[in-house]
Amino acid sequence: MNLMTGEIGLQVVRKPDGFFEYRPSVGVPDLGPSELRLDRWLRGPEIARRFAQRIRKDVRGRMLLDLADKTAHELDLVDINRAARRGDEFAVELIESAGREMGRALTPFIHYWLVERNMEFVGYIIIGSGVAKLGNGLKREGKGILITAIRKAIGHALISLGVDDYDTTNVIISAIGYEREFYAFIPS
Fold first, then answer.
1. Which residues contact 21 (CB under 8 A, 6 or more apart)?
2. Total domains, the chain
3. How far apart, in Å, are the Cα atoms of 73 and each of 12, 47, 62, 69, 94?
4. Are the CB atoms for 40 and 22 separated by under 8 Å?
5. Rg value, the chain, Cα
6. What CATH number should be reported for the domain holding residue 78?
7. How far is CA 176 from CA 2, 40, 117, in A?
C-alpha cells in the first residue's frame, strides 16, 4: 500500500496573479514578491481578514455585523459560522468562496502527482485543520457546503487541465485533526 502524509501547504504557492502553483522540493520553496504559501493564504486569520474586506464592501455585510455585534475587523470565523447557521446567506457565500479557493489551491498538487508523476495516492485527500471547521455541519441539499465547494472547484480546475475522471468524492474533511493545520493525503 502506498501511503504519504505531509504538510503540502508549504509547497503550494499563491502567485501574484491569484493562481496556485505546486512547487515540489525537499525544503520550503523560495517566494517571489507578492507570493504566499498556502499555509499562510488559507489559514483562519488570513481568511477572516479577507472576509472582513468583503463584508465592509457588501451591503449584506452590515446585517452580518449586526448579528455578531462586532466590527468587520473583530469578526472571526466562528462568527461567520454562527451567522451561516442562523441562515445568513452572505455568510454561507463566504464559506463557499473559501471552499472554492481551497479546491483551486489543491488542484496543482493533485495534477502534479496524478498526471506528471502517475501516482495514485492522490486518489484520496483528507483536509484537516482549523479551517476545515469552517462551515462545520452546515449543509445545503444534504451536502456539506465547504466540502461541496472544494470538490466542485477541484473538478472544474482539473477538467480545464484535461483530467476529467478524478473522483472528487474522495476528497474529504477530517473529523479529527482540527488542533493543527494540515492537509494530508492517502492512497487509493
1. 12, 13, 15, 108
2. 1
3. 27, 12, 13, 12, 15
4. no
5. 17
6. 3.30.420
7. 22, 21, 29
Lookup: cell for 95: 464559506
Q: Is the pTM of this model over 0.85?
A: no
Asked whether residue 174 is domain-assigned, the answer is yes
In a domain, 3, yes or no: no
Domain containing residue 153? 8-27+35-186
Phi, psi of 58 (to 5 degrees): -110, 130
Provide the pairing of β-strand 124-128 with 171-173: parallel
What percent of the chain has a predicted confidence (pLDDT) above 90? 26
Evaluate if residue 187 carries a pLDDT over 50.
no
Cell numbers for 57? 464592501
Can you read off the three cell numbers belonging to residue 169?
Answer: 468524492
Q: DSSP 3-state assignment of 25? A: coil
- Distance from C-alpha of 14 to C-alpha of 34, rounded to nearest angstrom: 9
Q: Is residue 21 part of a domain?
A: yes
CB-count burial class (<10 Å; 0-12, 13-18, 19+) for 64: buried
Q: Is residue 150 part of a domain?
A: yes
For 18-68, how does the pLDDT look when each residue is reduced to its tens digit (9 = 90+)? 999 888 877 777 888 899 888 888 888 888 889 989 998 888 888 888 877
